[in-house]
Specification:
heterodimer; A: elongated; B: mainly alpha; 10 helices; transcription (chain B); RNA_pol_sigma70_r4_t2 (chain B)
Chain lengths: ~200, ~170
């Protein structure tokens, strides 16, 4: 099939499309309004809840910082406060970067490039988040124990028997998930970038 | 005329264009309906810019293609189509079954191209000049030419595999 024939087919198709029943005008606005509502409902609830929990804990440590008597717990608490603010901020910023693409001002080639880069950035943030998550998991324990006066709990072998394997299994599953998604994103992104060149 | 009325008129006049974009970028009917609704929504979201746009026709092509590129990559597994029976995309099929078959074949082959090339051939079939295609898609005019000859070869060989192997047209 030559391009001329394709063009003639396309012209036929365009005529057919123009002849079809159009969606009623009042329904068009209704679609838009309903779509808007459904977008609001699909705001990333898990990310927001996770961020609120992190900020809540950071505030808790900050408000009771003066009660830490042990110097290393002060350092652990500072590390935790930093991570619990920095990690959700980085994650939400990366999500915002993916959502804020300018559909109407960018060109398709430009939007493909920006979309790919923001997606890669998102998964990079998740990867670093995973590493710092392990540090947070360990660093949060001593200051929490000191604040709640539960020193005896961490001296019990069953506590470590549950906390360490449980934490490691969770991190292992999460790591596998993130690594798989990261690899998929990178290879899909490379293909999309090759398509633009 | 209110903003809503202007918007509704724009969409109403360009439903065919939106339909064609949805059809070349999405294969399944449900995906096409979802993409159609998403383009309508994104057009509304950016509608204030439309009024300032120097070339409104270029603007709508760009919004449609950009929405297709980003939306399909974001939501491959979950569709968010609203349940309006009247909104589903339908059009009467032509009586000429051979021609209808060729149109379907054309769609199938276009969908095999990468996202950017799909947009380029779409604009070409919409009778846009190379300059207009370059302006809408954001690549240079010479790149449009290069891509067009590549697309032409690819479509020709896929739609007429025999002619390329035999060396006949």
């Amino acid at each position: 099939m030559e391009l001329d024939e394709m063009k003639s087919l396309w012209a036929d198709l365009s005529l057919q499309v123009e002849k079809q029943d159009k969606i009623q005008k009042e329904l068009l606005m209704e679609i838009t309004k309903q779509k808007f509502r459904s977008k609001l409902n699909s705001v990333r609830i898990p990310e927001i809840i996770g961020s609120l929990v992190c900020v809540g804990y950071a505030m808790y440590f900050l408000s009771r910082f003066g009660e830490f008597e042990l110097w290393y717990n002060q350092i652990f608490a500072l590390v935790c406060i930093f991570l619990m603010i920095a990690l959700p901020t980085a994650s939400l910023t990366a999500i915002k970067g993916m959502r804020d693409l300018k559909i109407d001002t960018e060109t398709p080639a430009g939007i493909m490039d920006k979309f790919v880069k923001s997606k890669v950035r998102f998964w990079k943030v998740q990867r670093y988040g995973m590493i710092f998550g392990v540090i947070l998991m360990i660093a949060i324990l001593p200051p929490l124990v000191e604040l709640n006066g539960a020193d005896e709990i961490i001296q019990k072998p069953w506590f470590w028997g549950l906390y360490v394997p449980g934490g490691l299994i969770f991190m292992l599953l999460f790591t596998r998930f993130v690594y798989k998604k990261y690899k998929e994103t990178i290879s899909a992104s490379e293909k999309m970038l090759r398509d633009i060149d | 005329m209110s903003k809503e009325e202007e918007f509704v008129n724009l969409i109403h006049e360009n439903q065919g264009l939106i339909y064609k974009i949805a059809t070349i970028y999405a294969k399944e009917k449900a995906e096409q309906d979802d993409l159609y609704q998403e383009i309508v929504y994104q057009t509304w979201k950016s509608f204030d810019h439309f009024k300032k746009a120097s070339k409104p026709s270029t603007w709508l092509y760009r919004v449609g293609m950009n929405t297709a590129i980003t939306h399909l990559n974001k939501s491959k597994k979950q569709l968010n189509t609203l349940p309006f029976d009247q909104v589903t995309i339908q059009f009467s099929e032509s009586n000429d079954s051979e021609r209808e078959e060729k149109i379907q074949l054309l769609y199938t082959q276009i969908r095999k191209l990468n996202l950017l090339d799909r947009g380029i051939i779409f604009l070409f079939l919409e009778e846009k000049t190379y300059e207009e295609i370059a302006e809408i898609s954001g690549i240079s005019v010479s790149n449009v030419g290069t891509r067009m000859s590549r697309i032409r070869q690819k479509l020709k060989s896929e739609m007429n595999p025999k002619s390329t192997t035999d060396g006949t047209r």
